[in-house]
Amino acid sequence: TWYNGSSIWIKTSSSDSGELLGRLCLGFGSSAGEVASLPVPPPPTGALALASQPSVATWYTRRSSSPGSGSSHAGRHRRPLSASKMDEVCPWSLGDQVLVHGKVALVRYIGEVQNSLGLFVGVEFEKANVGKHDGSVDGVRYFGPTAALRALFVRAGADSLATYEPEVEAATKLQAQMRRVQAAEKVQFAKTFKAYNNMESRAESERLATNLNTRGAENILSDEREPADGRPGSAGSDLGAGPSTMPKTPKGRLMGLEDGIDEEDIPILLDDDGVGIPVLQFIVDERGRTAVPRECVERVLRHFKRPGSEPLGASCMAKLLRHGMDMLKREVPCALKDIRSPEPPGRVVVLGDTHGQLEDVLWIFFEHGEPSPLNVYLFNGDVADRGKNATEIMILILLFKLWEPDCIHMNRGNHEDPIMNESYGFREECITKWSGSIGMDIFNTFNELFQHLPLFSLIDSKVFVIHGGLWRRDFRLAQLRRLPFRRLLPERPGVGMDILLFDSVWSDPHEGKGIGANPRGDAIVSFGSDVTRRFLKADNLRLVVRSHQVPDSGQGFEWHHGGRCVTIFSASNYCGDCGNLGGVLVYVRGEQEQLFEHWAPPLAELALLEDEADRAQARISAQARCSTRQRLSRGRSIQRMEADIVRRVQELVVRRKGELFEYWAEADLSPRGTFCIPAKLWREGCAAVLDDGLPWVRLQDALGIVDFRGDVHYVKFLTRYRVAFDASYGVSTAGWERAVWSKLMETLLQADLPLREALAALDSTSDGLVSGIEFARLIESCHVKITPLQARALLRSLAVHPPSSESRPATAAALGSTQASAGRVSVWDMLERLTVTLPVSALSGEEQEIAAWAVSKLRPLATTIMDDAWQRLVPAGSTQSEWPMPKVLAAWFEDEDKSGNGYLDEDEFVAALRTLAPQLETSGCPSDEESLRRLMRYCDVVGNGRINYFELLNGLTWDDSLGDEFRADLIETLHGAIFFNIDPMRAALRKFDLELNGLVSPDDFSKALRAVHTTLTASGEFGGSGLGRSEIDEISLHLPRVGHGSIDYEAFLKSFRIVDTLNVATPS
Q: In Å, how far are 111, 457, 505, 889 from 108, measured between CA atoms?
């Protein structure tokens, strides 16, 4: 037999070799017509023949001479071949013990099998459910019958059939076990990777909404700086008084050297190892354009291959960016770049996202050759962000392009945009490598350069390359050429050409038809196979190449739409967590595209490979090692991705805590106050409210939230994760957090409502329960300056934290438990909890001694009033659960309100207590006129000479009945409002940070946060946050000062994080 590259040929001693050859070809799937036309080439020199067993060929020929004969298959049992014939072709005998696919079996039959050519061995396995039948196939009994699914036929000579040996059996079992483990790990990796990929994509798209808020806040601050009427501060007066220190931000100001300065005048810089940092050399080519010599490119390339290499000097960066931008202006006149591939064997290598992973780019250069006129490269966007070496990749692209403009090209991706760079690392990379204002200049200039990159490339008028994908409307190539592309990318589709710009960098393919939803977010679409087909047909194109997402399979590429669209992603082991392969597409004119995958080695290993003499062998060896690393790292990748998924789930839970509570409370059938639901209902709520694409079954195990009954205590789960303040950054919460809390609680008493109005507002449906809507209406009608999210947090906390009996008078020590039905709370339990801490008082200055005196009198005063009300006003036979403290106190308040106006004025209050003088004295509370009026003044928090019901409720509570849990719930809304809006807050604060040192004045701190508050309120988002203008002022007033009275806003913003209160102590 021999193989000529496309067919298998056999030389036999039989004269019927033609028929045998035809039969074998038919066995490989060829038709009779194809077999007849097959040329039979002469055997190559040294071809191995089957002549050593000529009878085998003869037997095959005889067997095939009468394929239609039914006589040999008649009857129930098949007659096996003779013993002599079996000995010639089969080394086993009936009853022998063999291994089939590594499993022990006995030989029960040797011979022909109906409708199949060749000799077969029938075996019976020792274990059940391993085989496929019981010895009978298609109604013909060959042996047995055995037990069901214990018999199997194997072609004699098959690799899966072997003589039994204990060592082989043990090794086979071990290999099978390893394969099962690897298969299970592969399945788990695929599931985890898909969930991680979806969460990563959604988080990235959610950045779009953040970008809108960031730009909105910046616009407000810009209006304040440059008002339309020319009067300083008039347009931004709502941000607060005082002059602004905010500088005018340059739009991509080109920093750099004057043209008259030569590179030779620049001092040579040395890195930490004393190695010179390359200085760029610019020349003028024959066309009068600025270029760089190849030696300069090679010098920089060698420099970047050294691990830990220093960045180029700022002056070199200045000239490189300026000359690179000039070239792009000439080379890219429109949004669509036409690329002519080199003559074969020249090729075009297309890369997907690299995201700052220099190792991948350098490995691809090593594997596929460096850019040259015959080896053209196309980077399909998303070079910036995430990785730490995006600037090095951009430098190499610009240098190669200045050396030979047609050897390298780059499309623009969604991360070649300043606002994405603010959040995903490119800005920090520039500032870190070139420090302060110089780094910001380089960052701004890079982003101006990004606006000159094309959005699309067209290779040989056949292959269309785009970063994201196709659009929700059909466009032709001629329309793409007319697109105004030198601008910032839009954060939403908008109208007109904004749709084209947005979808070009954000859309993804789906396997259905038409335009569909996208897991990334509501504003982003997916395009189906019909969209791709119409686009290709309209302009006679063959293929769409796009990037933008890691294939869910973990490979470096993925085909879509019947081979009409392909995704290429080049960053292997993405972000050091994913364990995915990187990929590239190689295009050669007139040939089918080739796809290659890789796992990039570290730079140190790459340097060793380049030193090897046999580079081809080095590439093969390195790729083998990289494949092994990729396989071995799969377990670690799963752990890292799962940890990141859990972290993101914690953020989602904290952000959507109110909605989760309402979902589960509505469906909660457990006894009152139990707050337990089945795990299935927990998963349903998480999928409905948070994300239906996450593996919630596995997550419930990872979070450890299911008890032995299979239930989840959803209140414990919701209170487990919080946004906490970490004081390790040097900013204490002791001042500003206490001030905000006291201010927030004080507002609840400022709503001076009569009793009946207050109760009616709390329970507008008169069913004894307060819903979230009713409570929000109360807050709004009272003009209480807390946000709706804070109001919802109050209600939720009231529902889940039952009142503590230690904080009640002795006569009301046993009150009913909180009624929580579908997120509603008993009105009386709410009133009992809706009290404030003792420091909330209208008294100040010398009158503070009244507060100090009154505190010790509150317990006897409350005991006396409650005893009096219980005896006179509560119906006989009533239980304390039916009449909790707030209800009893309300009855006493209404009875003593002789004027009926819903208030107790000073005379009414004193008169009511005078009738209880003996009881007061007995309890230890003075009852003289002056003492009673001092108690009245203490209870009058509003300070208007009368007491409303809430003030009385507050005054008669001698401890903080809200408790630590209640305080934590409400303060968390404040923490969350800051944590989930850190990016727009940081961007707004940076507008005032002249020195880029993380410091601003208190006034500028307030202005920046007020601008964010205004933007989010206008967009409807801050209505659901826990940060209001009064809280902003309190934070600014009480934050510690550094330097010359400044606020370290970077330390402040970094101090907020999600904590698991079961595993990590909440920072303070």
A: 10, 65, 64, 93
Q: Which tens digit of pLDDT belongs to each residue from 529-580? A: 999 999 999 999 999 999 999 998 889 999 999 999 999 999 999 998 888 9
pLDDT computed for residue 219 by the predictor: 86
Q: What is the pLDDT of residues 4-32, one digit of tens each?
A: 444 444 544 444 444 444 444 434 444 43
- For residue 555, the model assigns a pLDDT of 92
Euclidean distance between CA atoms 859 and 689, whole angstroms: 45
pLDDT of residue 115: 80
CA distances from 394 to 379, 405, 735 (A): 10, 14, 47
Concatenate the DSSP letters of all residues of 731-772 into one string.
Answer: --STTHHHHHHHHHHHHHHH----HHHHHHHHTTT-SSEE-H
3-state SS of 919-935 is HHHHHCCCCCHHHHHHH
d(CA 881, CA 645): 45
Q: Is the dihedral of CA 1007, 1012, 1018, 1022 positive or negative?
A: negative
- Cα(64)–Cα(853) distance, integer angstroms: 115
The residues that are catalytic are 415
C-alpha separations of 843 from 80, 171, 799, 846 in Å = 110, 86, 32, 8
695, 195 Cβ separation under 8 angstroms: yes
Burial 79-118 (b: 16+ CB within 10 A, else e): ebbeeeebeebbebeeebebbbbbbbbbbbbbbbbeeebb
Strands 97-100 and 8-9: unpaired
Angle, helices 358-368/615-632, rounded to nearest 10 degrees: 140
For residue 900, give both structure tokens.
């009926």
Beta-bridge mates of residue 517: 525
* Parallel, antiparallel or unpaired: strands 347-351 and 582-587: antiparallel
Compute the average pLDDT of residues 281-296.
Answer: 92
> Would you state the structure tokens that stand for residue 415, as one six-digit string?
């991360």
Question: From CA 146, how far away is CA 215, in angstroms rounded?
Answer: 76
- Rounded-to-integer distance, Cα 464 and Cα 532, Å: 11
- Termini Cα distance of the chain: 79
Which alpha helices (DSSP H) does 404-507 contain, by range? 418-424, 426-434, 436-450, 477-481, 497-506
- pLDDT of 1028-1050, one tens digit each? 777 788 888 888 898 889 999 99
- Which 8-state DSSP code applies to residue 706? B
Whether pLDDT at 386 is above 70: yes
Q: In whole numbers, what is the pLDDT of the chain averaged over residues?
A: 79
Contact between residue 514 and residue 532 where contact means Cβ atoms under 8 Å apart: no
Amino acid at 84: S
Q: Could you say which DSSP state residue 1042 is in?
A: B
Looking at residue 164, its amino acid is: Y
Nearest to 449 by CA among 255, 209, 300: 255
* pTM (predicted TM-score): 0.71
256 φ, ψ (degrees, to nearest 5):
155, -175
Residue bearing the bigger pLDDT, 965 or 260: 965
Q: What is the bridge-based pairing of β-strands 408-411 and 375-380?
A: parallel
- For the stretch 798-834, what's the b/e string if a residue is b when 16 or more beta carbons lie within 10 angstroms of its beta carbon? bbbbbbeeebbbebbeebbebbbeebbbbbbbbbbbb
Residue in 991, 947, 960 with CA at minimum distance from that of residue 842: 947
The total of other beta-carbon atoms located within 10 Å of residue 1060's CB is 15
Contact in structure between 602 and 589 (CB atoms under 8 Å): no
Residue among 241, 20, 36, 217 at smallest CA distance from 982? 217
And the tokens for 978?
A: 């800051």
Confidence of residue 188 (pLDDT cuts 50, 70, 90): confident
Position 240 pLDDT exceeds 70: no
Helices 736-750 and 1029-1038: crossing angle in degrees, nearest 10, is 140
Of residues 914 and 994, more confidently modeled: 914
